[in-house]
């Protein structure tokens, strides 16, 4: 299982593209509970920003959302693989 952001982040330019990209990232998360949590957060964020009409602000939001997705994927990856590394080093 790869926990890095999906390819295509550099192609995201519009809110709907971002929404789809983030939902695809959720599918890479390890458990259904974690996937549901982040899907809910993505939907809520899109509702909050639905009225945004400034192109500059939209690009800021897109950039930040992709950075946040990258952070989440790295955090989850570290949490999954850290116990494996620790148990290997204790052997």
TrEMBL record:
List, for all copies, the residue spans of the domain called Complex 1 LYR protein. Answer: 13-70
Family as reported in the entry's similarity comment: Belongs to the complex I LYR family. LYRM9 subfamily.
Name the chain's protein: LYR motif-containing protein 9
């Amino acid at each position: 299982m790869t926990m890095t952001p999906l390819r295509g982040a550099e192609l995201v330019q519009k809110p709907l593209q971002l929404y789809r990209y983030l939902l695809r990232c959720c599918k890479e998360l390890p458990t259904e509970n974690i996937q549901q949590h982040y899907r809910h957060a993505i939907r809520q964020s899109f509702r909050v920003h639905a009225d945004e009409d400034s192109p500059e602000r939209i690009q800021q939001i897109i950039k930040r959302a992709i950075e946040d997705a990258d952070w989440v994927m790295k955090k989850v990856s570290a949490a999954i693989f850290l116990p494996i590394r620790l148990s290997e080093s204790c052997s």
